Amino acid sequence: MSSRTLPLLFINLGGEMLYILAQRLRAQNTPADKAKKVMNDIITTMFNKKFLEELFKPQELYSKKALRTVFDRLAHASIMRLNQASMDKLYDLMTMAFKYQVLLCPRPKDILLVSFNHMDAIKDFVKDTPNILSQVDETYQQLVEMYTPLSSGEFQLIRQTLLIFFQDMHIRVSIFLKDKVQNSNGRFVLPTCGPVPHGTQVPGLIRLFSCTGEEVTRLQFNNGGNYTAALREGSFETFGDRVTKLGTNMYSVSRPVETHMSGTSKNSAQHTKINTAPNPLAKEELNLLAKLMGGLEIQKLGNADSGFRVNLFATDEEEEEALITRPDELSYGVINIQATKDQQANAELAKIMGEFTESGDQSPSASSKGDDLLAMMDGL
Amino acid sequence: MYHKEKSIQIKNSASALYNNLSVLRIAPRRLTYFTVVHANVVNMVSASWDGLNYSHRQLQSKEPNVATSTSLIMQVAFCVLPSRDLLVVTSQKGIQIYESDGSIMVYWHALDTSDAPTAQAVFARGISAVWDNYICVGVSSGAILVFDVPSKGSNITLSEVLEEHKEPITDIASECSGSQECIADLVSADDGGNLCVWKSGKEFQLLNKIPGFDMSCSSVKLWKGIVVAGYGTGQIHLFEAVTGILHAEVNAHARWIYSLDIAPFSGLLLSAAEDSLVRVWHLTVTPETNSVEVAHLHNECVTDTQICGAKFCDGDGYAFAVTGYDLSEIIRYTQL
Questions:
Q1: Which of B296, B297, B302 to mutate to test the interface with A (most CBs of A within 10 A)?
Q2: For chain B, which residues make up each domain, given as ranges?
Q3: Can you tell me the distance from the alpha carbon of A136 to that of A44, in angstroms, rounded to the nearest whole number?
Q4: Which ranges carry the WD repeat-containing protein 54 beta-propeller domain (chain B) (predicted)?
Q5: CA nearest B183: which of B197, B196, B171, B169?
Q6: pTM over 0.90
Q7: Is the CB of A193 inside 8 Å of chain B's CB atoms?
Q8: Could you say which architecture CATH assigns to the domain B2-63+70-113+121-335?
Q9: What is the pLDDT of residues B228-261, one digit of tens each?
Q10: Contact A196 B247 (CB under 8 A)
C-alpha cells in the first residue's frame, strides 16, 4: 500500500522504546551516567545517517518478523542487554502503544503530530549532546519535507497500511487497562465523545439548499454521542505545540510497565494467514535495514564486558516465567545471525557488515551482498 | 427501528479499507453472499435465509510472480449485470474477476506499474457494474478502466480507459434506481473529493465534473440522478449529478466516513464511519420541484469499533450488515 509508511513506523516505535527503557533504567536505579550512555547510544544508532537514508526510501512495509529484527538490533546497540522475555515484552508494549495512537488519532494527518511528539521527546533526551542533536534535527527536516505536502487521502492510506500491520494484536497493557483506554478483551476504547477532529463539524445538522444555492431548511438530529468543537490544530513544523497528547511519554516511575499474557490466547487464536504462510524467500527479509543495524552493532562488541542487563519485569523470576508461558502464536520468530558459529562464515559476515560502517563510503550493490549473506545463512 | 440479529463469524478480521463489505442477494436459492477483505485474503460467506447454513470460502490475490511481496487487496465487490453476476477483486497488483461464488477466476488484468513515480502507491480501487455489459474499475493514477463483459464466458476485454481524475480513485457507483430516465448512469470519486459523472456506452461520455474541497471522498452512490458522497471530514453531500447543484449538506459523522449504501426501492441511505456509528437516513427526491430532502431515522453504535463496511442486504433496506476493523464477524440488523 503506501510506500511512505516505514519511517513513521520506525520513529514512533523507536520513540516508545526509548520511553520504556528510560523508565526501566530509572526503576532499576541504574547510575545516571550509564543510563545516559544507553540512551545516547541507542539514539545515535536510530538516527545514523546511512540508516535513515535507507529508511526514508519509498518502499513497502516490512513484515513483523523483519521489523522485530531491526528493533532487536537497535535495543542492543548499547551496553545494555535484554533477555528474550524482556525483549518480547518491550516489543509488545511498543507496538500496542503505537497501535493505540494510530487508532485514536482523530485525523490520519495527526499521525504526523504523534511522530513529532516522539521526536520532541527524543530531542529532549539528547539536548546536551550536540552531535546527536544535529542528527535529530536533520530528521525533523526530512519528516517535514516528506510528509507535510501529502494529501488527506495519502495520510489515510498510510494509516490503513499501519492498521494492517497491527491487525489482530490485542495484547493487554497494564497501564492502558488502568487508564481504561483498553478493555479486558484487549480492544481499545473508542469514545463517542470529546472534540471532533480539526476540519470536522460536530455531527447533528442537515442543511437543505434550493437550486440557487440558498439554504431553505435546517434540521437537527441526535448524533448519539457527546461531541464538542474541534481544538486548535497542532504545529506541523520542527517545533511548536502539537496539541495532541498521543505520542507523549505516558510512563513514569510510579507507573510501571506490565503486560498480561494470559487471556490473550483465545483472542489471538485466529491468527492471520499472512504470517504463517511458508515463504521460500523468507530469509530475504533480513533486509538492508537489519543489516545496517547489525553492522553498527558489531562495532560495539568490544564493550561487552561493561554491559549490564535490563529487565522489563519486576523480578528475574517473573522474566523467566514470562518466557516459558508466552503463547506460541505471540512469538515473533526473530531471525538471528549467530555470527560466531563458523570461522569462515564469521569473516565473510564481518566483511559484509564492515561495508556498512560510517567509515566506508561505498554504497553496496544490494544484490550480490544479499546473495552472499543468504548463502551463508543456509550454511549456518 | 432496527434491532441486532445474530452475527456471522468470518475466518479473519476485516481490514481498515473503504467500503469493506459487499453483499449479493440470491433470491432463487434463498442465499446471501457476503465478502470482507483481510489484507491479501477475501473472506466469502454464503448464508442461507433460514439462518441454518453457512459456508465459507477464501480467495487470495494471486501473483504471477511468487517471489515478490504479497499483494494487498484494496476492495472486493459483486457486480450484478443482467446476464450474470461476477465478483471483482482489486489489489496492488491488478484486477481479478471471478464467478460470483468465487469458484472460478474468469479474468485477470495486471496493473502497469512501470510509469508510476516510485513514491506513489500503485493499486486498483473502486468497482462498479454499469449498464448491461460494463464493469468499471478505478486505479491509483486516477484512470478508470472500462471492461466489456460478454453474457457468458471469459472473453472480457478492456474497452476504454477514462482519464479524467488526477488523484487515486476511491469509489465508483452506478445509478441504482432502475429508472430509465436518468441520463447519468455512473459516478466516480477520488482522493481529492472530485466527482465525475458519466454516461456509459461504447464510448463513455463525461457529463459533469464536481470539484472537491481537498478532502477525500471515500464512498459515493448514485440514485435517481442524485450523487450522495461521503467524505473524510464526516460530511455527506448530495448533488444533482448532471448540474452539480448542491442540494444538501449533512454533518453526519465525527470521523472519516468509510461506507455509504442506498436501498433503491425505499430511498433509505446507510452511512458508516470510523466514529463507531452507523446511521440510517431517508432520501426523498421530487423531480417535479427539483428538490431533495434528507431525514435522519436511526443510529446504531458498534462499541469500540471503527466501521469499515456497511451495506443493505435487500433493496428495501429491511436489513443491513456491518463490518469493523479487527472484528471477525459481520454484524446484522433487521427492522423491527
A1: B296
A2: 2-63+70-113+121-335
A3: 9
A4: 1-334
A5: B197
A6: no
A7: no
A8: 7 Propeller (2.130)
A9: 999 999 999 999 999 999 999 999 999 999 999 9
A10: no
